[in-house]
Specification:
Layout (H helix, E strand, L loop, with lengths): L6 H9 L3 H23 L2 H17 L10 H20 L23 H19 L3 H12 L4 H8 L3 H27 L1
Helix pairs in contact: 1-2, 2-3, 2-4, 3-4, 4-7, 5-8, 6-8, 7-8
């Protein structure tokens, strides 16, 4: 197999019984999906479990993939649903703590002065805390747009929402983040 084999070809090969082809899809998308799920699931450990479950489900359901969207979009939707189901089962609060994963909201420039780095780390902590306080529907669209750099159409596909709903949720999420960060800044000034 050539290294630049497209997803459709790998899917066809996997459906024909070639487990290595599905393994190449896993290798192609596991890091990207893990990064996205870290922000959604809340921790590296939960994200690893979600990603593993999502790939297992994708393998089992591969025949049902209609190819009306990209494979990653379909896979992301599976992972998102796995994450939501896990959260409902455990009823725990989602935490956006990427420090353990290396995927945290990192603003610090290693070449900057220690005082500047400390201020940047404090700002990143405030952003993480504000993000944790958003509802899941707002946090998800904000993470997909701002951290994963997905366009509106892709987000709509991934979340099975109309584009107008994506735009509305993103707008409200940004307003809520702005308000939460403003409150944080005012508390610190007191």
């Amino acid at each position: 197999m050539a290294p630049d084999v497209d997803d459709d070809c790998l899917i066809d090969q996997a459906l024909a019984g070639n487990a290595d082809a599905f393994g190449r899809l896993v290798a192609r998308y596991q890091d990207r999906l893990f990064h996205a799920m870290t922000h959604i699931a809340g921790s590296a450990e939960d994200a690893r479990d979600v990603v593993q479950d999502a790939f297992v489900q994708a393998f089992v359901k591969l025949e049902s993939f209609r190819r009306t969207s990209g494979f990653y979009t379909w896979l992301y939707r599976i992972a998102f649903n796995v994450s939501a189901t896990r959260r409902r089962r455990t009823r725990t609060n989602v935490s956006i703590d990427g420090n353990a994963t290396g995927h945290a909201l990192t603003l610090a420039d290693p070449g900057s002065a220690p005082h500047d780095r400390l201020e940047q780390q404090e700002r990143a902590a405030r952003v993480r805390a504000a993000l944790e306080n958003l509802s899941e529907e707002f946090r998800t669209v904000l993470v997909l747009r701002e951290m994963d750099d997905c366009d509106y159409e892709t987000i709509a596909e991934m979340l099975d929402l109309p584009i107008g709903t994506v735009r509305s949720r993103l707008h409200r999420a940004r307003l809520q983040m702005r308000e939460l960060l403003k409150e944080t800044m005012e508390v610190e000034k007191e």
